[in-house]
Design a protein that fits this description.
single chain; alpha+beta; Helix Hairpins; Heat Shock Protein 90; 5-stranded mixed beta sheet; 4-stranded antiparallel beta sheet; elongated
Length: 430
């Protein structure tokens, strides 16, 4: 089973979307602000040009010599005489570029063009210019200010998020931490921290009620499993004893003795089935809480010695390659069940004079065996009661037990076939 990917924290998740949203808002706001400021600058310049027009026209009435100003001078206006005719006396504003000696470059200017009559009724064209703010410099300054503002806001929000919001969310994180350590069936009451936040109070209350119902269900299931297992074991054991006594005390034909042997084998299989189902239920209910550091190298050697007689009977060869020392913290009983079921699977589904190879490294355990020339169905091999052969000795639960144990401890399990069947267990880094 693959280990779950590590997610992003709630604080960082919220902060990420807050910063993205803030960036979009600032961008839109900056565009609107730039347009408004530029419009206000144009409006102020135009008002100044209109005022200059009034003053210049008034001065031409008092000093007619001002009408002889054909070029822009230091007063930034020029007057050109026109032939008499019909003209539009409205003000016209345009923006253009003119060379500025100080900057040695073309700079933006604002022009006002209008027609007026002197005191003798002769038409003249008046052009007034005024230097404008450079839009590119304004935009550059505005962007610089906005970037500085955005960085300041980001830093401020991050600090607020780290200090203030973290304190506000503390009850949630405390509850989450306790929930991670919670183990059903221990009899301990799950307590949540006090909080002034209504949502946290509701969460705590609902969580406590949920866990109380879960505890009651867990206790009921545990008792049912134990009672059912005990009630099944007793009549099966009595039946087996009676069969053995009956076979010993009676002289029966070979056919009837064979039938008694089949009945005894069926009952023995039922015993194994009952034990396997009980173990599966205990694993899924997390009743194997005790853990210790397990040395799988020693465990593999010990189990191999226990299976020597069966291996010899099946004429199977077993090799153990220790390419590293595999230590892992888990329940030792489940570690035994893990290797025993994998080794049993390799023995039961092997052929006479076949081979089994156990390989151990610092992080993995592999069991490879000969057997069927066809690969197993990877979608079904870990299903309960699935059997790829007609072997009546198999309960169909061995690999289901393996999967339950590996899922409990986040051990990755893979099956491959390359002429031989191989089950590989990759243990998570501690």
């Amino acid at each position: 089973m693959n280990k779950e990917k590590k997610g992003i924290s709630l604080q960082n998740y919220t902060l990420r979307y807050l910063l993205i949203g803030l960036l979009a808002i600032i961008a839109v706001w900056a565009a609107l602000f730039y347009a408004v400021i530029l419009d206000e600058v144009y409006d102020n310049i135009d008002d100044g040009l209109k005022n200059s027009k009034i003053l210049i026209v008034r001065e031409t009435y008092a000093h007619p010599e001002l009408l002889e100003t054909p070029d822009f001078g230091i007063n930034q206006y020029k007057i050109e005489p026109l032939v008499k005719g019909t003209y539009d006396f409205s003000d016209k504003f345009t923006s253009t570029f003119e060379f500025m000696e100080y900057d040695d470059d073309d700079e933006p200017v604002r022009l006002l063009e209008t027609i007026f009559n002197d005191r003798n009724g002769n038409p003249h064209k008046l052009t007034i210019r005024a230097s404008m703010v450079e839009e590119d410099e304004l935009l550059e300054d505005l962007l610089t200010a906005l970037i500085a503002l955005y960085i300041m806001l980001v830093v401020s929000i991050a600090i607020i998020n780290r200090i203030i919001l973290k304190r506000a969310w503390q009850p949630f994180y405390t509850t989450l931490g306790k929930l991670k350590l919670y183990q059903p069936g221990t009899g301990k009451t799950f307590e949540t921290p006090d909080s002034k936040v209504t949502e946290f109070k509701t969460l705590s209350r609902e969580l406590q009620e949920l866990l109380q119902r879960n505890e009651a269900t867990y206790a009921s299931q545990k008792q049912f499993i134990e009672n059912a297992s005990h009630e099944l074991q007793t009549p099966i054991a009595i039946s087996l004893n009676k069969l053995e006594l009956f076979a010993e005390n009676n002289i029966l034909p070979d056919e009837q003795m064979a039938e008694l042997g089949k009945i005894s084998d069926t009952l023995q299989r039922l015993v194994r089935l009952n034990k396997s189902l009980l173990m599966l239920s205990k694993i899924e209910n997390r009743q194997y809480t005790a853990t210790e550091n397990v040395n799988f190298n020693d465990l593999a050697v010990q189990i191999a010695e226990d299976f020597e007689d069966l291996l010899e009977y099946r004429k199977l060869s077993l090799e153990i390659h220790q390419d590293g020392v595999l230590n892992f913290s888990m329940n030792k009983g489940l570690a035994l069940a893990l290797i025993i079921n994998l080794l049993k699977n390799a023995i039961v589904h092997n052929h006479t004079a076949g081979s089994i190879t156990i390989t151990l490294t610092n992080t993995a355990l592999s069991i490879r065996n000969t057997g069927s020339s066809k690969p197993l169905d990877t979608d079904l091999i870990f299903k309960r009661f699935y059997r790829d052969s007609s072997n009546e000795q198999s309960t169909g639960l061995g690999l289901s037990l393996v999967q339950s144990v590996t899922q409990l401890y986040h051990i990755k399990t893979t099956y491959t076939f390359s002429g031989q069947h191989e089950f590989l267990l990759i243990f998570p880094a501690v």
